[in-house]
Structures are given as C-alpha cells and as structure tokens.
C-alpha cells in the first residue's frame, strides 16, 4: 500500500511514517523545511519538499502518483496566527481534497480535533478560530464522495505510547499520546472497510487493533 502523509515531518505524521515504513508500506509525504527531509531520509523515509499553502491542487495531485491513502496530518500548530490556521488547517485540506479527486484517490484520513476541546476553559480567540476552522474542515470532507475517515484525537502528549486507547464516535475529551494516535492511524490505514466515520480517540483500556476492529464491526449497515 502507498500512503502519502501531508505533514509527514510533524509529531503525528513522522511517527505514522515510521510505523508504516516498518510495516512494509510505501510512504511519501509533504514537509516544508529542508532539514526535515534530511532527518526523514536518515530514517529511510522518502518525503517530498513543499509548502501546502503554495501548492495548487494539480501540483499536489502530481505528487500523489500511485497513492492508495492520503493522510492529512498537517496543521499550523498555533504559529502564524489565525491566517496560518485558515491557510493550512482549512484551505490546505481543500487543496488536498481536490488533489485526491484529480489523482483518483478514494481514501482520505484527516487528523482533526474534538470540537469541544477545552470548552470549560477560557481560551484565546486564536484557539476558538482553530476549533472553528477544524470543524469546517471536517464538514467539508464529510460532504465529499471520497472514502473519508475523520480521526479526532484528544489533547496530544509526547509521553511514550501505551498501545491502549478508547476509539468511539463520541468520547470525553482527555488526552492521548502522539505515539498512540500514529498507531491508531496506521491501523485505520490498514482497515479500508472503515470509512465515512468520525471517530474520537483518547487514552483508554483497549488494545489499538481491538479498538479499530470494534469500530469496523460496528459500522452502521447500509454504508458502503
Ligand atoms: N496539539 C494538540 O493537542 C492537538 C489535539 C488534537 C488534534 N491536533 C491536530 O493534530 C494534528 C497533528 O498534530 P501534531 O502534533 O503532529 O502537529 P505538528 O507536529 O505541528 O505537525 C504538523 C505538521 O504540519 C506541517 N505543516 C504546517 N504547515 C505546512 C505547510 N504549509 N506545508 C507543509 N507542511 C506544513 C508542519 O510543518 P513544520 O514542522 O514546518 O511546522 C508540521 O510538521 C494537527 O492537525 C493538529 O491540529 C492537535
């Protein structure tokens, strides 16, 4: 299977690239800083240099040659203000959707966020804008005819992965390691039967493979 990861040098993206490469998948992806490509190459991970905000859909589509699954794990990460959030988390996904269509790719996995993340806190306007852009991106992808999956992780940490999660259409927002998000994404990449699903992810008791298998079995009848 060939997987293209937009945001391959990021915390989640790079972990996913390592897992998929170790599993024997062909991996490519987009990174924007030259040194990131060098670091990925030392790990045996091929990736492509490019800035999502400067690529049009046809240019990105040309990079997606032979891709089976497109994973969108990029994000502004709070840098560059609200304009960057709109350009990367919002318009960047629009570009990826259009590129998938042009390249004839059916499967797109989006790393999103809990819409109610930190509702009990008084968060800055930039965070509210981020949540708004992410929810609109979810809605845009869900309205396409792609075989999409939206994964909403809880607050990300860099603690070592536990291999155990909760995965469900609705969870309470807690936290989750980037290791376990990447491992769940890898499992979803390898479970093509799951699509047209919004799944929330938090640390929990279930082995990741079991958690994904359960969602596969719970797929509502009637969906493709
Ligand atoms: N932080 C949280 O608690 C949390 C919770 C739930 C969901 N999420 C979502 O999870 C996703 C992944 O999180 P993460 O921790 O892996 O984030 P990350 O480490 O910041 O990775 C995001 C990657 O996207 C890349 N990127 C940004 N703009 C780009 C552009 N114009 N062109 C190409 N690449 C670009 C970044 O490049 P650079 O390395 O050059 O910056 C970075 O490598 C994000 O979408 C985030 O919104 C985060």
Give a written overview of the molecule.
The longest helix is centred in the middle third of the chain and has 23 residues, at 81-103. The chain has helices at residues 11-22, 34-42, 57-63, 81-103, 125-142, 178-189, 208-217, and strands at residues 2-6, 26-31, 48-49, 69-72, 107-111, 147-153, 155-157, 164-168, 175-177, 197-203, 206-207. Strand 5, helix 5 (125-142) and strand 6 (147-153) form a beta-alpha-beta unit. The chain has one domain (2-217): NAD(P)-binding Rossmann-like Domain (Rossmann fold, 3-Layer(aba) Sandwich). The model has no long low-confidence stretch (mean pLDDT 95). The protein is an alpha/beta fold and 224 residues long. It binds NADP nicotinamide-adenine-dinucleotide phosphate (NAP). NADP nicotinamide-adenine-dinucleotide phosphate is lined by residues 7, 9-13, 30, 32-33, 51-53, 73-77, 88, 111, 113, 153, 155-156, 178.
Provide the descriptors you would attach to this structure in a database record.
single chain; alpha/beta; Rossmann fold; 22% strand; binds NADP nicotinamide-adenine-dinucleotide phosphate
Topology diagram in text:
Layout: E1 2-6, H1 11-22, E2 26-31, H2 34-42, E3 48-49, H3 57-63, E4 69-72, H4 81-103, E5 107-111, H5 125-142, E6 147-153, E7 155-157, E8 164-168, E9 175-177, H6 178-189, E10 197-203, E11 206-207, H7 208-217
Parallel strand pairs: 1-2, 1-4, 2-3, 4-5, 5-6, 6-10, 7-9
Antiparallel strand pairs: 8-10, 8-11
Helix pairs in contact: 1-6, 3-4, 4-5
The protein binds NADP nicotinamide-adenine-dinucleotide phosphate.
């Amino acid at each position: 299977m060939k997987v293209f990861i937009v945001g391959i040098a990021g915390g989640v993206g790079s972990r996913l690239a390592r897992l998929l490469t170790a599993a024997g998948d062909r991996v490519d992806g987009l990174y924007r800083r030259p040194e990131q490509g060098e670091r990925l190459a030392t790990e045996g991970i091929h990736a492509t240099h490019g800035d999502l905000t400067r690529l049009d859909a046809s240019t990105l589509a040309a990079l997606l040659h032979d891709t089976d699954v497109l994973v969108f794990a990029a994000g502004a990460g709070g840098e560059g203000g609200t304009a960057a959030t709109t350009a990367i988390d919002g318009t960047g996904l629009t570009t990826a959707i259009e590129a998938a269509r042009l390249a004839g790719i059916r499967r797109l996995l989006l790393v999103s966020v809990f819409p109610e993340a930190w509702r009990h806190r008084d968060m800055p306007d930039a965070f509210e804008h981020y949540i708004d852009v992410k929810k609109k991106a979810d809605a845009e992808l869900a309205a396409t005819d792609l075989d999409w999956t939206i994964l909403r992780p809880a607050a990300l940490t860099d603690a070592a992965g536990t291999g155990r999660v909760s995965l469900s259409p609705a969870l309470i927002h807690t936290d989750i390691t980037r290791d376990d998000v990447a491992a769940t994404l890898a499992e979803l990449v390898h479970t093509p039967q799951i699509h047209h699903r919004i799944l929330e992810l938090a640390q929990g008791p279930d082995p990741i493979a079991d958690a994904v298998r359960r969602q596969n079995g719970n797929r509502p009848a009637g969906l493709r």
